[in-house]
Write a structure and sequence with these properties.
elongated, Arc Repressor Mutant, subunit A, alpha/beta, 3 domains, D-Maltodextrin-Binding Protein, domain 2, 13 strands
Length: 307
């Protein structure tokens, strides 16, 4: 038995949730993956997985073994990546996780250029507003829009994301436009559910900070959906300036409370805390940061930050 191959098979089965999904990712058969895991269990004399006709679950021993194997494989992959980096060209697979809107606006338009620059890299891009477990999901780098709290991750700041309050003219035609943050309490506010403090919006004016409780008929984990709800006149939304600029320019949205600064939302690239940052991660970080700083969307961010 090739034990390393069996361990990788076991970890992949757990991460993908089934033998068939793991087999598809490996380009092999379900039977082959099942035999590798069974051989691993026989070799150790323990049961790692409980199999039913509908699902797989880890045994107590399997749970501990899985996390240790993930850590060991991460170290092995890191060592291999570091060795390859001595050759000066990133290779292998780069798994990236990013919010949907960020991926569509910032990564998607430049991904082809990145692949041309690094032809020996394969990119696996996952767009979701949910925060994934980087180790368990084998994510090399994730983009996150929030204040970071996980000390087990290394973060590289990309930019501070200026936010604005917006509403559609149709909403303002039936609701009195707020002139102070306190008046938001009487408005229908569309809330982004991925934030830690969902029902609290933060402002500053002349160096004085202010927080207000807000509520509304809808909360959502997608910035795109919140934008559409605002355009459709459902209520007031708090969104990045680069998301709303074209709709403000076209008159579909109106910026509110211009005398108050909405606290910016920082964007970071995060990756697992290893001794060496793999070359493929460094290459993507340098590339995307440069592209963001030279994009038209970022010019809007800089202009808003200085205004």
């Amino acid at each position: 038995m090739d034990k390393l191959s069996a361990i990788r098979a076991f970890v992949l089965v757990v991460q993908t949730g089934s033998f068939s999904a793991a087999a598809r990712e490996q380009g092999t058969t379900q039977a082959t993956m099942s035999k590798k895991v069974a051989a691993l269990e026989d070799d150790m004399g323990v049961k790692l997985l409980t199999r039913t006709s509908r699902e797989l679950s880890l045994t107590e021993v399997g749970q501990d073994y899985f996390h240790r194997c993930v850590s060991i494989l991460s170290e092995l992959d890191e060592a291999e990546s570091n060795a390859r980096s001595q050759m000066g060209r990133p290779t292998g697979s780069l798994r990236i996780s990013a919010p949907v809107v960020f991926g569509n606006r910032f990564i998607g338009p430049v991904l082809a250029e990145f692949l041309r620059n690094y032809p020996e890299l394969k990119v696996d891009l996952h767009l979701s507003d949910k925060h994934v477990d980087l180790v368990a999901e084998r994510i090399d780098i994730a983009i996150r829009a929030k204040q970071l709290e996980d000390s087990s991750l290394i973060a590289r700041h990309l930019f501070d994301n200026p936010m604005v309050l917006v509403a559609a003219p149709s909403y303002l035609s039936t609701n009195i436009e707020p002139t102070s943050p306190e008046q938001l309490a009487s408005h229908n506010c569309i809330l982004y559910s991925m934030l830690k403090s969902i029902g609290v919006w933060h402002f500053s004016r002349k160096g004085k900070n202010q927080s207000v409780a807000v509520s509304g008929s809808c909360r959502c984990d997608s910035g795109d959906v919140i934008l559409q709800l605002a355009i459709d006149g459902v209520g007031i939304a708090q969104l990045p300036v680069w998301m709303v600029k074209e709709f403000v320019d076209s008159g579909q949205l109106v910026i509110l409370l211009r005398d108050f600064e909405v606290n910016p939302l920082p964007f970071h690239a995060v990756f697992p805390q290893n001794r060496y940052v793999p070359l493929k991660v460094r290459s993507f970080l340098d590339f995307i940061k440069l592209k963001i700083e030279h994009s038209e969307l970022y010019s809007d961010i800089r202009a808003t930050s200085k205004s």
